[in-house]
């Protein structure tokens, strides 16, 4: 179907959903501004982008002296521009308003695409589906690039679709512009490169079938690929020339790939949490002397490939489970709890429902979109190819890495217009005798409805609570007393949340309240229903507290229990949790150094020397750990027997429940 003629006024089928989207999103944003204590306080990934933006403003736009980009840099630079204009706090608010604006434009583009593919009825259906989508409303008001990414993908799809009806020169410009837009997507999230490659392959295939006139397949692919790479080039050049690190865009993909395909990354049982494992894994390449981002990424890509080669059936099973989870009605949050946002916004609470068997909106959208795509037909599927190809490419990445609501949402939005166009064919198919296709669509809808329900997790591991995020913000600002108060409130709200319990205990320990901290550590270490990494952290921190209290023999015995649990290869029941291959026992060596210090301070010098020697033997490749062990041995040799102990530990131990590693 040719693109409709441009109209001076938006038709009602587009204007009404757009207006409704603007009203709902602004109303939700207003409720958050009035009620949410975190409205002006970035947390988790939003905090990463806010800190990166401030660093850009502080050091300069090329970030001299900094490493290669850890995450896609575009959003951080955009946020830096907003902060330069409106200040740090004003920039945060402006960033939220930008998300709202992008979200409203997304509704316009979805409705316009649906009108192009299926007429006014399709535009009404698709436009209202996204305008009223609670998940989209949530992400259209946060300080994250979700709505920006979706907008860029939709504009790229629109350009590719226009290229089919344009004359030759205009077609070339449309394809090149679409490729450049996908380059911006890749600068926002590096896995956007999958969309670039998919679009280039789709353009070549379309050229082979004559969709681009005389344009040859290789040139069609190049028209998409070359502009995308040209847009990416400044980030590559900055990484190579300023950071001296050969990273194409960013280097967080390796650890995400490894963790997302490990049995320990269990998003359905509730018996997992990646925070402590993330810190253990993230530090490993650096401990082994791999300082560059490219080396860090290569290390984890090799680990992921080795794991897949060792256990191919397990890897395929994990991918299949992630594929099923992609179809779940449940929305997996990883930055802020949906329930916290819904508590502040009754509007969101009405449009984002997460029940045990029914979850909206995706639990309703999944069967409707699936049926609509089944009804689409070959000709309209060819017309909808730009949206379908980009949706498929974007859906691949959560399955290859890991599922969250914000990673799934752009693919769902891209599918709305083709699905709505498919539904408009239902009366024609029914009258023309196409009842077999209708029956197939109905069966697919039923299957997706069942899958979206049965895959809702019985127990979920939510991101940090609002109270815990407020505590982290207070601690980051140096307000220790306020941070402790918020962590107490978090424990009162979620007494069974092990992250809350560990962070509260760590705060107490750092502030010298070890007697109370021990009670909280005990509540974690005694539980058999939590991931092994949490029990190990509680055991190790218990030993730290005992050493701080001068109970050195008990501390040494507790450290030994942590070592006996094999901290480099933790297991939750029979599940291996993030085991690295061919790597020294770094976690055990860290614990041995702390145990040696407790033994030394308790007068057991020979046992302390044995622990230091074990670290040198087992972790000689890790220069920093081996150096600490050698320093410990020298201190023992230089201190005569019976000399009074200084009482100071070898190195201040960090809190287990939090860290400064980028995520």
Number of domains: 2
Shape: globular
What percentage of residues falls in helices of 4 or more residues? 55-70%
First-last Cα distance: 44 Å
Radius of gyration: 27 Å
Instruction: Work out the helix count.
Output: 30
Quick one: biggest sheet?
A: 2 strands, antiparallel
- Estimate the strand proportion: under 5%
Q: Going across the biggest sheet, name each strand in turn.
A: 1-2
Beta strand count = 4
- Class of secondary structure makeup: mainly alpha
Low-confidence spans: pLDDT under 50, at least 5 residues?
1-5, 647-655
The residue-averaged pLDDT reads: 92
Polypeptide structure, described:
The chain has 663 residues and is mostly helical. It has two domains: 357 residues, no CATH class; 172 residues, Tetratricopeptide repeat domain (Serine Threonine Protein Phosphatase 5, Tetratricopeptide repeat), CATH 1.25.40. It is built from 30 helices and four strands. Strands 1-2 form a two-stranded antiparallel sheet. Helix 3 packs parallel to helix 19, helix 7 packs antiparallel against helix 8 and helix 10 runs parallel beside helix 12. The longest helix is centred in the first third of the chain and has 45 residues. The N terminus is likely disordered.
Features:
69% helix; 663 residues; globular; 2 domains; 4 strands; mainly alpha; two-stranded antiparallel sheet; disordered N terminus; Serine Threonine Protein Phosphatase 5, Tetratricopeptide repeat
């Amino acid at each position: 179907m040719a693109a409709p003629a441009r109209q001076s006024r938006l038709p009602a089928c587009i204007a009404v959903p757009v207006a409704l989207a603007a009203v709902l999103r602004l109303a939700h944003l207003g409720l958050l501004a009035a009620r949410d204590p975190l409205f002006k306080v970035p947390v988790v990934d939003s905090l990463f982008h806010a800190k990166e933006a401030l660093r850009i403003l502080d050091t300069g736009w090329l970030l001299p002296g900094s490493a290669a980009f850890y995450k896609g840099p575009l959003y951080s630079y955009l946020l830096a521009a907003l902060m330069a204009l409106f200040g740090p706090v004003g920039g945060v608010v402006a960033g939220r308003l930008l998300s709202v604006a992008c979200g409203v434009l997304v509704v316009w583009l979805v409705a316009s695409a649906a009108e192009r593919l299926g007429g006014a009825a399709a535009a009404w259906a698709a436009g209202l589906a996204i305008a009223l989508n609670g998940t989209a409303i949530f992400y259209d008001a946060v300080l994250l690039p979700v709505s920006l990414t979706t907008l860029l993908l939709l504009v790229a799809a629109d350009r590719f679709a226009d290229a089919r009806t344009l004359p030759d020169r205009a077609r070339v410009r449309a394809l090149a512009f679409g490729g450049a837009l996908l380059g911006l997507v890749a600068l926002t999230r590096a896995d956007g490169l999958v969309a670039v490659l998919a679009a280039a392959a789709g353009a070549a295939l379309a050229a082979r079938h004559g969709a681009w006139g005389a344009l040859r397949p290789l040139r069609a692919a190049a028209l998409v690929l070359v502009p995308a790479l040209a847009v990416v080039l400044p980030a590559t050049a900055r990484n190579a020339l300023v950071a001296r690190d050969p990273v194409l865009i960013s280097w967080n993909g390796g650890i995400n790939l490894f963790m997302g395909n490990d049995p320990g990354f269990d998003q359905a049982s509730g018996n997992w949490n990646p925070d402590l494992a993330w810190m253990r894994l993230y530090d490993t390449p650096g401990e082994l002397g791999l300082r560059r981002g490219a080396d860090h990424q290569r290390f984890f890509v090799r680990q992921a490939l080795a794991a897949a080669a060792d256990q191919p059936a397990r890897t395929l099973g994990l991918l299949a489970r992630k594929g099923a989870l992609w179809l779940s009605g449940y929305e997996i949050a990883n930055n802020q709890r949906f329930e916290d946002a819904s508590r502040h916004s009754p509007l969101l609470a009405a449009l984002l429902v997460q029940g045990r068997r029914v979850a909206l909106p995706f639990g309703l959208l999944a069967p409707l979109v699936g049926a609509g795509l089944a009804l689409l037909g070959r000709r309209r599927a060819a017309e909808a190819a730009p949206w379908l190809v980009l949706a498929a490419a974007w859906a691949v990445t959560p399955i290859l890495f890991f599922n969250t609501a914000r990673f799934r949402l752009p693919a769902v939005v891209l599918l709305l217009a083709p699905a709505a166009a498919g539904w408009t064919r239902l009366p024609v198919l029914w009258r023309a005798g196409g009842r077999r296709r209708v029956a197939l669509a109905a069966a697919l809808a039923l299957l997706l409805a069942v899958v979206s329900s049965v895959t809702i997790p019985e127990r979920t591991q939510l991101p940090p609570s609002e109270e815990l995020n407020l505590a982290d913000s207070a601690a980051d600002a140096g307000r220790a007393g306020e941070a402790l108060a918020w962590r107490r409130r978090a424990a009162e709200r979620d007494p069974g949340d092990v992250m809350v319990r560990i962070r509260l205990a760590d705060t107490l320990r750092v502030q010298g309240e070890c007697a109370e901290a021990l009670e909280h550590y005990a509540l974690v270490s005694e539980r058999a229903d939590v991931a092994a990494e949490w029990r190990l952290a509680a055991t190790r921190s218990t030993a730290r507290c005992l050493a701080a209290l001068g109970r050195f023999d008990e501390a040494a015995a507790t450290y030994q229990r942590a070592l006996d649990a094999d901290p480099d290869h933790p297991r939750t029941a029979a599940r291996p949790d993030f085991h690295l291959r061919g790597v020294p026992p770094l976690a055990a060596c860290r614990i041995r150094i702390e145990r040696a210090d407790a033994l030394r301070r308790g007068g057991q010098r020979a046992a302390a020397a044995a622990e230091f020697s074990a670290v040198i033997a087992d972790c000689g490749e890790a220069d920093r750990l081996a150096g600490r062990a050698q320093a410990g041995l020298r201190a023992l040799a230089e201190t005569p027997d019976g000399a009074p102990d200084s009482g100071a530990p070898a190195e201040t131990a960090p809190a287990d429940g939090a860290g400064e590693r980028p995520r």
